[in-house]
Amino acid sequence: MKRLMDALLALIALLALAPVMLVAAVAIVVESGRPVLFRQTRVGWQGREFGMFKFRSMVKNAASLGPYFTSANDPRITHVGRFLRRTSIDELPQLLNVITGDMSLVGPRPDVPAQRSLYTDADWAQRCSVRPGITGLAQALYRSESSEAQRLAADLSYTREHSIWLDLKICWWTVKRLTGRGAN
C-alpha cells in the first residue's frame, strides 16, 4: 500500500512542481552551466545501490574537490545551490527515484556506500530494512543539524515504528522545518 501511495503522490508532486523544477534548472544553467542534475550512488532498501538524483547545487566536479558531506559554508556550493538547499528544492528530482521504487517519500535518508563503516552490522541491516526516503525522522527533527548518533537513532527508530500515521507526521514536521533553520 505504501509503495502505491508513494508512486501516485510522487507523480502528482512532479506534475504540480514542474514549474518550480523548470525555474531551478534554468537558474543552474545560467549560473554554472550543465549538467543540471547530479546523480550519486546511494544505498537503499536491502542494501542495493542506486543512483539518487538531485539538482546540482555545487560546482562541477565537487566530489573530487572535497568529502562526500558538506558544511554550512562549503565553498563548493554555488549561489543558486545555497537557495536550492535552503528550500530543499535540490531534492525534488528524487521524486523520480520514488516513482522507480528506489526510494520512498518518507524513510531514512539514503547513505553513500562510504558511510557503511559508521554502522554495526545489525544497525546497517535494520537501516536497510525499509526504503530510504526524500525526508525522514532525522530530517524532520534536526534538519542538517543532527550528529551522526542522533541521525542513526532517529533512522533506527523509524525502521522499528514506521507506519502511515508516522509518515504523515514526519511530512508535517518536515514542512515546518523547511521554514526554519538548519539547512546547509
Q: Which shape, going by the Cα principal axes?
A: globular
Kindly state the percentage of residues in helix: 40-55%
List segments where confidence is low: pLDDT < 50 over at least 5 consecutive residues. none
How much β-strand is present in the residues? 5-15%
How widely separated are the two ends? 33 Å
Structural class comes to: mainly alpha
What is the tally of beta strands?
4
Number of domains: 1
Rg, rounded, reads 16 Å
The strands making up the biggest β-sheet line up spatially as 1-2
Main pleated sheet: 2 strands, antiparallel
Mean pLDDT over the residues: 90
Total helix count? 7
Order of helices and strands: HEEHHEHEHHH
Summarize the structure.
Helix content is 48%, strand content 11%. The protein is mostly helical.
Describe the protein.
Strand 3 (104-106), helix 4 (121-127) and strand 4 form a beta-alpha-beta unit. The strands form 2 sheets. The protein has a two-stranded antiparallel ribbon with strand order 1-2. Strands 3-4 form a two-stranded parallel sheet. It has 184 residues and is mostly helical. The protein contains 7 helices and 4 strands; from the N terminus they run αββααβαβααα. Helices cover 48% and strands 11% of the residues.
